[in-house]
Design brief:
CATH topology of the largest domain: Nucleotidyltransferase, domain 5
Distance between the termini: 59 Å
Structural class: alpha/beta
Largest sheet: 5 strands, mixed
Radius of gyration: 34 Å
Strand order of the largest sheet: 5-4-3-6-7
CATH architecture of the largest domain: 2-Layer Sandwich
Helix content: 25-40%
Keywords: Cell inner membrane, Cell membrane, Membrane, Protein transport, Transmembrane, Transmembrane helix, Transport
Membrane topology: Single-pass type II membrane protein
Number of helices: 3
Strand content: 15-25%
Protein name: Biopolymer transport protein
Function: Involved in the TonB-dependent energy-dependent transport of various receptor-bound substrates.
Pfam families: ExbD
Length: 136
């Protein structure tokens, strides 16, 4: 597209006027700056402040472990997966307020962990902690 400069010369102006393009870009930039904070869909909740507490020293939680070979242990004692629910029932019979910690090797498939969690639930244990390693 060619424009003439207005005088009667045969010279054609071949430059693009970028002022309207800059104006449109600035309007879009201002629009995005204004609307970006409104796109946050997070629910703001003020959580209550609590003090950290330690469990009583006389009650030690029972630890259920799954090693890399899918062997299940209750406090370092190997237990067959089919007998796990029965063993946990006996522990709950002696201590109805039993708390349990579950730890599994990172190479263990989720299916094995889910089976152990199902046995824990069927045994009637409601206090379960899942232990993980800290760090990056």
């Amino acid at each position: 597209m060619a424009f003439s400069t207005g005088n009667n010369s045969a010279e054609v102006l071949s430059e693009i006027n970028i002022t309207p393009l800059v104006d449109v870009m600035l309007v879009l930039l201002v629009t995005f700056i204004i609307t970006a904070p409104l796109l946050n869909n997070a629910v703001h909740i003020n959580l209550p402040k609590t003090a950290t507490t330690a469990p009583p020293n006389d009650i030690k939680p029972v630890t259920v472990s799954i090693d890399g070979s899918n062997h299940v242990f209750i406090d370092k004692r190997e237990v067959n997966l089919t007998a796990l629910e029965f063993e946990l029932h006996e522990l709950v019979a002696h201590n109805p307020d039993l708390s349990l910690s579950l730890q599994a090797d990172e190479g263990v498939p989720y299916r094995s962990v889910a089976k152990v969690i199902t046995n824990i639930q069927r045994a009637g244990i409601s206090k379960l902690s899942v232990l993980t390693a800290t760090g990056g």
